[in-house]
Design goal:
Blueprint (H helix, E strand, L loop, with lengths): L16 E4 L11 H5 L5 H11 L2 E4 L26 H16 L27 H5 L5 H6 L18 E12 L7 E9 L4 E2 L4 E5 L15 E5 L6 E10 L21 H13 L3 E10 L53 E5 L3 E2 L6 H5 L7 E2 L2 E11 L43 E11 L20 E2 L16 E26 L25 E3 L3 E8 L4 E4 L9 E9 L10 E10 H4 L5 E5 L24 H6 L1 H14 L2 H21 L8 H10 L11 H16 L7 H7 L1 H20 L16 H23 L3 H20 L2 H14 L6 H15 L17 H14 L4 H19 L7 H20 L1 H5 L3 H17 L2 H9 L2 H17 L34 H13 L11 H5 L13 H10 L6 H7 L2 H34 L11 H12 L4 H22 L5 H14 L5 H21 L2 H18 L3 E3 L5 E3 L1 H13 L2 H10 L21 H23 L8 H14 L4 H18 L2 H21 L7 H10 L26 H17 L3 H18 L2 H23 L8 E8 L9 E7 L5 H13 L7 E5 L14 E11 L14 H4 L8 E11 L11 E14 L5 E12 L1 H21 ...
Parallel strand pairs: 7-15, 27-28
Antiparallel strand pairs: 1-2, 3-7, 3-13, 4-5, 4-6, 4-8, 8-9, 9-11, 10-13, 11-12, 14-16, 14-22, 16-17, 16-18, 16-19, 16-20, 20-21, 23-24, 25-26, 25-28, 26-31, 28-29, 29-30, 30-31
Helix pairs in contact: 2-10, 10-11, 10-13, 11-13, 11-14, 12-15, 13-15, 13-16, 15-17, 16-17, 16-18, 17-18, 17-19, 19-20, 19-21, 20-21, 20-22, 21-24, 22-24, 24-26, 24-31, 26-31, 26-32, 29-30, 31-32, 31-33, 32-34, 33-35, 34-35, 34-36, 35-37, 36-39, 37-39, 39-40, 40-41, 41-42, 42-43, 42-44, 43-45, 44-45, ...
Amino acid sequence: MDSNVSGNGNGGGGYRFRRIPRHFLPHLKLDPLLDENLEQWPHLNELVQCYRSDWVKDDNKYGHYETISPVSFQNQIFEGPDTDIETEMQLASARQIKAEDATDDDVPSSSGRQFTNADITKHFGQSPLPAYEPAFDWGNERSMIFGQRISETATTQYGSGLKISVKVLSLSFQAGLVEPFYGTICIYNRERREKLSEDFYFCELPSEMQDAKVPLEHHGIFYLDAPSASICLLIQLEKPATEEGGVTPSVYSRKEPVHLTERERQKLQVWSRIMPYSESFAWAIVPLFDNSIGAASGGSASPSSPLAPSISGSSSHEGVFEPIAKVTSDGKLGYSSGSSVIVEISNLNKVKESYTEESLQDPKRKVHKPVKGVLKLEIEKHQTVHTELENVSESGSVTNDFLDPADPVADMLFSKSPGNGLDGPQSSNSKWISSDGKDVSGNGSNTQGNPDFCADNFQAFDFRTTMRNEPFLQLFHCLYVYPLTVSLSRKRNLFIRVELRKDDADARRQPLEAMYPRERGSSLQKCAHTQVAVGARVACYHDEIKVSLPAVWTPSHHLLFTFFHVDLQTKLEAPKPVVIGYASLPLSTHAQLRSEISLPIMRELVPHYLQDSGKAINSLKNVDSTALLQFLHPILNMLLHLIGNGGETLQVAAFRAMVNILTRVQQESVDDAERNRSLVNYVDYAFDDFGGRQPPVYPGLSTVWGSLARSKAKGYRVGPVYDDVLAMAWFFLELIVKSMALEQTRLFYHSLPLDEDVPPMQLKEGVFRCIMQLYDCLLTEVHERCKKGLSLAKRLNSSLAFFCYDLLSVIEPRQVFELVSLYLDKFSGVCQSVLHDCKLIFLQIICDHDLFVEMPGRDPSDRNYLSSVLIQEIFLTWDHDDLSQRAKAARILVVLLCKHEFDGRYQKPEDKLYIAQLYFPLIGQILDEMPVFYNLNAAEKREVLIIILQIVRNLDEASVVKAWQQSIARTRLFFKLMEECLVLFEHRKPADGMLIGSSSRNPVGDGPTSPKYSDKLSPAINNYLSEASRQDVRPQGTPDNGYLWQRVNSQLSSPSQPYSLREALAQAQSSRIGASAQALRESLHPILRQKLELWEENLSAAVSLQVLEMSEKFSVMAASHSIATDYGKLDCLSSIIMSFFSRNQPLAFWKAFLPVFNHVFDLHGATLMARDNDRFLKQVAFHLLRLAVFRNDNIRKRAVIGLQILVKSSFYFMQTARLRVMLTITLSELMSDMQVTQMKSDGTLEESGEARRLRKSLEEMSDEVKSSGLLNECGLPENSLLVTPENFEENRWSWSEVKSLSGSLLLALDASLEHALLASVMSMDRYAAAESFYKLAMAFAPVPDLHIMWLLHLCDAHQEMQSWAEAAQCAVAVAGVVMQALVARNDGVWSKDHVTALRKICPMVSSEITSEASAAEVEGYGASKLTVDSAVKYLQLANKLFSQAELYHFCASILELVIPVYKSRRAYGQLAKCHTLLTNIYESILEQESSPIPFTDATYYRVGFYGERFGKLDRKEYVYREPRDVRLGDIMEKLSHIYESRMDGNHTLHIIPDSRQVKAEELQPGVCYLQITAVDPVMEDEDLGSRRERIFSLSTGTVRARVFDRFLFDTPFTKNGKTQGGLEDQWKRRTVLQTEGSFPALVNRLLVIKSESLEFSPVENAIGMIETRTAALRNELEEPRSSEGDQLPRLQSLQRILQGSVAVQVNSGVLSVCTAFLSGEPATRLRSQELQQLIAALLEFMAVCKRAIRVHFRLIGEEDQDFHTQLVNGFQSLTAELSHYIPAILSEL
């Protein structure tokens, strides 16, 4: 078979199985004689075969999944009204790029999965699934399935697995290196005096002896279980044996002279060339992990051992070892690569003769002299990774690392010879280790990294392999022999030769070639030599001799030791060794033992010298568990051999034996995994069904087991073995499958063309029946035991599921479906919770199959059988009571969909469509039984909705339509699900902006399993985050202060917040709350928290976009009427659009939404704009205006276009007036929600950004110029607004109408803004307050309800100020609105004449405002309030207020409007009341008119404002209407009080004391001026040009309706610049003001819109003054009185006027005129006409006075006589004075 890795089970071409060659280090060399004819020993053959055959691994057994690369997520931007994160991020990334100089290719995005497939183009956004399950880890999800099988690596490797390589770099002596040195290195445990590995040999030659072609120095590789302080490298050096009388080894340690002399050098060179034998020279111990060094003992770095953190020195408390590392010359540690350390060993101890292992422990170092030399080693530590065999390079085999820190069976390899063990003078101790096992060693991990690591590195055999409780993995057949001591009777130079001989028949026969050579690469040799022990009576040795053993031993195989003495003197030829004795050791006796053996020494070898040695011991009587495990593979192979093709009895016996063995292995092994690792290794790797040399095992195995099961089912007693079989069922089931699969592969191996799938195998009828029966029995067991709640049942259930799972890859799927359906019949419907759980696990395992998607149906016509079963069962589970199972069922589906979504094989749109169609029936089921969905909790609903979205996302339109075609109700339910998606996945930021009230949902309680970091994301995320925070690992590739999170998150926690989960939980507990989701999030490392937010944002965005995509499809389908929905209202569309608007959506969504919105209105405008959909439209209008406030320009512009789309639709499908009403209503609602103003730093208010942006949006809405650019930016064609909908001929779009609409909205905005800005001064400045209410009333006039509301607010404000007339006007205006609406719809008792009558009272009752009342019928607004009764109510209120203002003539007009109503209703009682009221009113009017003091209803003042602090009032004049008792001083005080509070430090308030014309330019800057002047109202017919002074009462003949809009005041002035002058200089200016509207108005002040003035010269002034007095007197004399008895008031007024005219003391008035104009010089300046007029006026005045005095005399009684006398005197003296100027006066009077 090939060793290729096939793509997937039987998909992807190629074969399932991969060969894994055995890496033997010593390739198995069996006894050459036996190699050919192993057939004679079948068991041996089987054994060898077992260790020789390659492993066969099924690559897809544990699932094969190639995922696409992760999706990258972009930050989704969720804008609030006041945020513009988009721009901030753009700026930040621009800065970022500048700063980094564009080193990074792209902004790091967080993990998830990337799909680069074409179909993203037709979708609006990414699929929601990757964001929901961003850390999807298929392996992890699988591992959580109950009973999940875990793949084992081929070797049994646990533990820390240290691998240490050692390379000798150099050896140097101070004396110089002239002879060759040899050495060994091994791993040694100092405390236990135990040699842990075989020796690694090295050799250092002097440079002149080096060969040019010296091969590369090799590394020695050693294996360790775990580091410990007692483990060291033991290094032993040897050199050529010393020449007697020659140069002794002491030259290397002498103090003086240091260097070898020339003669010494030559002697050594010559001798070393002729001396083949060597003697031990020096030793050293290098502690590998000695960490106990305190002070630095060598140089700058503290030397400690090579593999401890720094480099090793002596352990000072023991004082045994000197520092072994000198720091390299520059004071730094020399590092080569990776973790390798260069160690210089200078504490080489020179050996004394015959030193033993004891000497190594010598604490005082008396014996040993230090050698002056340095050995340089490179030591490197490799952590052996748990490599799957796949990753192992060809060169090295897999490393072996065990969890075995201290092996109890310590083998004492070095030991001192027992004193009492010597039989005689001559004895030899040798120590044996036999290891007839297997050993795997090699360098798995660093092969690529280190160039020195070549294939032929020396792998030191680890002696502990032979004692472990694990199966041997390779045949390792050799013996280590250690000669220790030889005791002789006299001193000799002794060495030993060791040979392996086959028998003792002939001593001359050649020994076997079985000795491993020291030089790597040479072949096995016939004999091996030890060192020479020089001049010793007890010779000690330190050699290790490794012997390869024969495959088959006979009792006569033995080791032969020959002892030689060698003479160490130079004679003529090289020294010859002399034999001095022999010893022999039969292999069969001692090879099993690890012990010290003493042997006698024989003088000579006679034939059959072995006879007297001990008999062979059979030590294999009872297999102990270690051996059972060590030889597990061959044992199992043999038993299977019997089961496969033995007879029936043999089969059963073998089966039972096998079950026993397996059970023992399972129970006695160290690991307690359910699938024992040794067994898993056997099934997965070692078992290869005898390589096809015999019939497959599975038929036999299933028959034997099946019959056992059937007997149990029939009730026979089958003994305890049956339960054991169930516990080990997994093993047999996996064997059966592997056996089938191997057969399948072998069947098609040759016939199959390359790259084609192996077709599934059809099982033979008999075998399949047998398997069915077996399966049935096992199912029954599961069923029965489950009810009893036995754990075995669940495990067996999983094993059966995996059996089906495995079979799906091997045999015809429809045969497997038989088994599956058998299962489902057994566990049908909603069964007990435990059973149901088993069923879910079963489905979970089977559906995880690599080819799940491609499975056929049970009948050829059906779709995928498994998926339909799965959907059925999952839906059933959702209806189950058991909550945990509901959640589990949902999880199963989500994980499956993720698996498909990220599967590299299914990325084409057609694949995705196929998968979506497989799952589509699920949606149908949910729609049919919605209560099942509604019963789920939120987390489960999310899972289900994600599934639904994922399915519909990939469906084609034809399939989607099916969901909408059945019934209107069902379609509606589908969209209910879509709305649920929006609700459940909405992204809520901690502080959501203005309108989406920030959600204060309770923190989610802690789930029992894992803490809940996120509600939205999949439950798996919580585990992912707990793991991540437990490790507290920074995600890869981000520096500590990773710019990843500096850039974005404003909500990152402060550094003081805990990062680790533990701290967070502790904090939460200390505050006595369960850790809330919020607290948990806070506790995350910022990078993790940022990831979490990124995922949630993307999920929310993807869900919204997906729902939008569905809505767009629906809209298009609905247009073609191909689906079932309510076409009258299109409620599915309208409700989903409302859902979109009312949720917090990301920027990406708004960008995609607008074109859809436009399209929907194009297609369905008529329906959506109909009255039925008012509520919908109002909401849409509201949300568009809300978005028009956003700071983010992209969103704001889209809102503007949205409004334009609405307007466009209204041109065609409704009155624009109605849209105006709607927009006005929603604007008013928005205003109440929106922050229109903001505080400035000085505490005053200013317009907020939101208001500014809304204004900008409303302006842009009607901006014809910018329009096409805007449309372009928003992805719509430029002519979108001009396109006419179907069925319309002409284009109705009109920019002017849009402008007027936008204008009226802006008006409303401004009014609301102004009102809000006044908030702080509202209570003080009542005038401004009233005005702002008035503006609001006018701005919202299109909506009668709002109009009335604001008018009533205004009415209340006036009543508070006791401005009764203004309040009454408001009431009249309200009544007017109602009356007009009623008249317009001919409803009620009034006609247009009545409205005209009302308009006379209140001119504001205009016609245009209310023409739209009908359009204003919008849900919640409109006609209900506009009734006759409400009109009457407000008329009566007006009547009450006018009478409080004493404006009775208005009351009369109002009551006359009320009377027709009562007449039409025949409400005679009410009519009587009305007429009584009228009577009272007319009497009051009479009373006012007959009063001697003229009645004034108010006083009027002109107020001018000058100064920038007045804002809009600057340079404007107003006329104020004040109550009649307010004097000039009062209003001055009132106004200065109001406006002083508005001044800041830089401005002061001045009042201009006179009423002259103010030139604003000439005023001081920084000062604000108020000019306040009393003014008089002007009657309608008054002659303003008259020079007379005005006396109000004179001009009013009767009291008319007191409606004034003109006012005047007179100002005296001089033309010569003096402020005051005589009468002759005194001019007069009369100013007439025209106001905007007339008093009484809705407000207390009106703007002056026109001001005219006349000037009167001094003389005209004088004439006017005199004429005025004359007129007053004449008026008094001529006024008709109602009855003669009314004398008293007449007398009083006459006295008052006369006193002011002729009393002596006031003569000055008339006289001063004379002196001013008629005396001397001024008289000459007058024109004669003026002179005549003046004289005439004076004469007339005097004549009227005379008349009046007479009348006075008639009226007075006694008490007034004196007064009359005074008057007469005064008159006479005045006449006398005047005669000086006008002589004619005397004759006139």
